[in-house]
Amino acid sequence: LVHTEKSAAKQRKLREQFRIDAGETAALFLAMKKKCAIGIDDGPGIQAAKVLGIPFITAMNVLTELCEQGILNQQSALAKLDDLQMYGRYHIQIVEDARSRIKKRR
Predict the structure, then answer these.
(1) Closest CA to 26 of 2, 58, 60
(2) Cα(21)–Cα(97) distance, rounded to whole angstroms?
(3) CA nearest 13: which of 27, 25, 3, 1?
(4) Each residue's pLDDT tens digit, 57-71
(5) Which SS3 state, helix, strand or coil, does residue 45 take?
(6) Distances from the Cα of 86 to the Cα of 32, 43, 57, 65, 66, angstroms
(7) Each residue of 32-65: b (16+ CB within 10 Å) or e?
(8) Burial class (CB in 10 A: 0-12, 13-18, 19+), 26
(9) Rounded to 10 degrees, what is the CA torsion of 24, 80, 104, 57?
(10) pLDDT of residue 7
(11) Range list of β-strands (E), 17-90
(12) What sign results for the dihedral spanned by CA atoms 61, 66, 69, 74?
């Protein structure tokens, strides 16, 4: 990603507007420039993606999709969900929704 004064100013504005870190800002800015989706789990970053119209996916989405498609079995998916719950900063309702989706997969 080429940094110019103009792009740096846009990134600063984005960071201030949504109160996100430099990493999330750079990822969002790149997704806008490349017109592609972004993988993000940071709450304010997700809000920024929504407002900016940037498609996004979270780790929970990836995990439940892999299970629903049969790529991960239920036992593995639940173990990985436990890891995400332990190491991530997810609201309990998000975790329980994912757990419910995984358990529906037989």
Answers:
(1) 2
(2) 27
(3) 25
(4) 999 999 999 999 999
(5) helix
(6) 31, 17, 20, 20, 20
(7) beeeeebebbbeebbebbeebebebebbbeebbe
(8) middle
(9) 10
(10) 79
(11) 38-39, 56-57
(12) negative
- Token code pair at residue 27: 């990822």
pLDDT value, residue 92? 94
Longest dimension (CA), the chain: 53
| pLDDT (tens digit per residue) in 29-88 | 899 999 999 999 989 999 999 999 999 999 999 999 999 999 999 999 999 999 999 998
Q: pTM for the full model?
A: 0.79
Structure tokens at 34: 């490349």
Tokens standing for 40? Answer: 């993000």
- Dihedral (CA of 29, 48, 77, 81) sign: positive
As a whole number of angstroms, the distance between CA 104 and CA 51 comes to 32
